[in-house]
């Protein structure tokens, strides 16, 4: 089955389908629908650095859209943390009385990430229509990196900018990925193909109207 996906969650192997993993907005849909690199173990399974304890329940929720939490009453806080990590809002609501759901705390820009998983989660949770991911060479913030930072001042109200250091890039240069969350389309370009400002306008000609 080409739709089958193997996951290595904290050393435990799970099998499911891509359609199950992408059924709801969240961590896995972002992982599969954006060009963020997917970490894999030595067998080729997608590696998730989390405890496998409640992952069966996570999969049940993604399959059915509901789980009976009565028999997990002692583990609710743990399950809620896992639901928050995988960005499954429906499961978070099942774990938390509606009157006690805390309001999200706004974060300052820009965001720097050390793992592809964290960047994928950030893209999924972004409330902006456009996300710009900037990948730059390890231990090297070149002029193009600085160009990206400058664009935050111009487009910060319309675009979320995320930065991640890479062990190795194709030409030793920064490169950009612009992701349109409204239609799940993305535009990739090396930083030497032009200024980020011009690339944004090329990918989104009507950016001024956003």
TrEMBL record:
Pfam families: BTB_2. CDD domains: BTB_POZ_KCTD-like. SMART domains: BTB (SM00225). InterPro entries: BACURD1-3, BTB/POZ_dom, SKP1/BTB/POZ_sf, T1-type_BTB. GO terms for biological process: protein homooligomerization. It comes from the Eukaryota. Residues 3-71 form the BTB domain. This is BTB domain-containing protein. It comes from Caenorhabditis nigoni.
């Amino acid at each position: 089955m080409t739709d089958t996906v193997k996951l290595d969650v904290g050393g435990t192997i799970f099998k499911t389908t891509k359609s199950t993993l992408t059924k709801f907005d969240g961590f896995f849909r972002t992982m599969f629908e954006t060009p963020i690199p997917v970490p894999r173990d030595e067998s080729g399974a997608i590696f998730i650095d989390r405890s496998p304890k409640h992952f069966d329940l996570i999969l049940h929720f993604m399959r059915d859209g509901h789980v009976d939490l009565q028999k997990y009453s002692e583990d609710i806080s743990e399950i809620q943390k896992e639901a928050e990590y995988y960005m499954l809002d429906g499961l978070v609501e099942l774990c938390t009385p509606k009157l006690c759901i805390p309001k999200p705390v706004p974060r300052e820009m820009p965001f720097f990430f050390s793992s592809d998983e964290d960047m994928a989660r950030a893209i999924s949770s972004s409330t902006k229509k456009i996300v710009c991911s900037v990948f730059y060479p390890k231990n090297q913030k070149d002029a193009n990196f600085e160009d990206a930072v400058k664009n935050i001042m111009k487009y910060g109200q319309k675009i979320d900018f995320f930065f991640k250091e890479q062990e190795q890039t194709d030409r030793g240069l920064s490169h950009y990925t612009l992701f349109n969350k409204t239609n799940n389309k993305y535009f990739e370009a090396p930083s030497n193909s032009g200024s980020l400002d011009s690339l944004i306008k090329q990918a989104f000609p009507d950016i001024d109207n956003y």
